[in-house]
Amino acid sequence: MNHAVVSAAGSSPGIIRDSVDGLLTPPGDAAALADALELLADDGALRVRLGQAAILRVQQEFSVEAMVEQYARFLDRAWSYRHGVKR
């Protein structure tokens, strides 16, 4: 399983939710990054929990199927708005 420890810079906080499906560390904080890596190295249950949560989130929100569904909803709303149809 892959486990995420990332810097909370850029779009990372929108992808990884701290302590839910990965660990976020402050940008440029090497000590916090080392602490997060050590935490995962020492806590097998945490690694499994974060890894399972990350896999589930990717399947639900970032899979091809999820993206197609999101685009379909967007296009349906855009078409409805353009044609004055309330849904």
Verbal overview:
The radius of gyration is 18 Å and the shape is elongated. The protein starts with a strand and ends in a 5-residue tail after the last helix. Strand 1, helix 1 and strand 2 form a beta-alpha-beta unit. The model has no long low-confidence stretch (mean pLDDT 91). By secondary structure, the chain is mainly α. It is 63% helix and 7% strand. The chain has a domain of 58 residues. The chain has a two-stranded parallel ribbon with strand order 1-2.
Write the layout of secondary structure elements.
Elements: E1 5-7, H1 12-15, E2 23-25, H2 30-42, H3 44-62, H4 64-82
Helix pairs in contact: 3-4
Which short descriptors sum up this protein?
mainly alpha, 63% helix
Order of helices and strands: EHEHHH
Biggest β-sheet strands, sense, barrel:
2 strands, parallel
Question: Runs with pLDDT <50, length 5+?
Answer: none
Shape: elongated
Brief characterization of the structure:
The chain is mainly α and 87 residues long. 63% of the residues lie in helices and 7% in strands.
